[in-house]
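Deliverable D5.2: sample structural annotation.
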Amino acid sequence: AEFVASGAAECPMDVLRFQHQASEVDASFWERFRGYKLDELRLEDAALRVWGFSRAGEAKLFLTSVSFESSIVEDANPNTTLCVGQLRNYNTVEEFKAADKTELLQQQGAELLRAMAPDAPLPDVAQLMRFLIIAFSDLKAYKYIYWCAFPAVLPGEPHQAAAVEPVADECISQLAVATQALQRQLQQVGSCLPWTWLVQEGAAYSFSAAEAAGIL
């Protein structure tokens, strides 16, 4: 398998494409890291496990001050999906610029593949939504330079996009019913379902979680 950063390559128009993943890092994330670096890490540059979250309908990773707390797993907002990542901070800007981004991304991709292996236990959803951040922090100047990437598994052959057809008027009400059923399901499980299939049977529509469909 090959791992690429989001948006790394252009695709022909008939190839199925997905919205590029983006990151939104709150200032509180870096303020929390600054305290952690001064009080605990100091000159150590070991990689840190950090947590982010995404919201349904947004191809965006959010990072805040709680991204360093393991309790985020239990306290996650039910309308968000957790993502697990690695933060690697370098002590000098030269080390940051010289970092082998491809190798670091390959390492995260290998973790993703292990979680997806057929003989692996049913993974935590966060293990399937991984990310990588490398950074240089000028703590005195409160200046942070960072690069964020998201490993993705590419199929051997690109999936072709089917022809786009408008939904018939009589199907709109069925879609509304299916959406309401999905909302009730989300309330029951207490979290967002990151992979959901829209299933059509005749004129009826329903949403099916990827786990229930045997995908995960």
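Annotation notes: Residues 1-9, 210-216 have pLDDT under 50 and may be disordered. The radius of gyration is 20 Å.
The annotation will be released with the project's public dataset once the embargo ends.
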